[in-house]
Design goal:
- The protein is α+β, with helices and mostly antiparallel strands and 137 residues long.
- It has 3 helices and 7 strands.
- The chain has helices at residues 14-21, 27-30, 118-134; strands at 2-10, 34-42, 48-57, 60-71, 75-83, 87-98, 101-111.
- A 7-stranded antiparallel β-sheet has the order 1-7-6-5-4-3-2.
- It is globular, with a radius of gyration of 14 Å.
């Protein structure tokens, strides 16, 4: 399974970063590859527990459902529980840096379940991670 980790600094508080990253319905507005999002189940506090995505990746459209766990507002973790990917796990971690800045660490490991040339897979995985961080800003 290909895995990537990337870190960036964001000019927002940990709480603001957490709110954007857990606002799944808004992903199509800021994450260009996300075509559609449906929150299927929510936790008692209103955060998405199971969320269905339709995403353009690896030269095709992938439909999958992620199940989320939270350590609010410091971390969001997910894993695929259904859909067209064989395996997908990841996380956002938010660390306060002071003065309204946050260090964001994004981790993603994905096995789409079908053959993709290694160079294409690595490039697509890095693009997904870059989108998740750069467009989060």
């Amino acid at each position: 399974m290909e895995s990537v980790e990337k870190t960036t600094e964001v000019g927002a508080t940990v709480e603001e970063c957490f709110a954007v990253a857990s606002g799944y319905e808004d992903y199509p507005k800021w994450a260009a590859s996300v075509a559609k999002v449906d929150v299927l189940a929510r936790e008692a506090g209103g955060l998405g527990k199971q969320v269905e995505f339709s995403v353009g990746a690896f030269g095709t459209t992938l439909d999958y459902t992620l199940e989320y766990e939270y350590d609010a507002p410091r971390q969001i973790r997910w894993k695929a529980v259904a859909g067209s990917v064989k395996a997908l796990v990841g996380s956002y971690t938010f660390e306060a840096m002071g003065e309204g800045k946050t260090r964001v660490v994004y981790k993603l490991a994905i096995d789409p379940g079908f053959y993709i040339p290694r160079m294409v897979k690595q490039g697509s995985t890095k693009l997904i991670v870059s989108t998740a961080l750069n467009e989060l800003r």
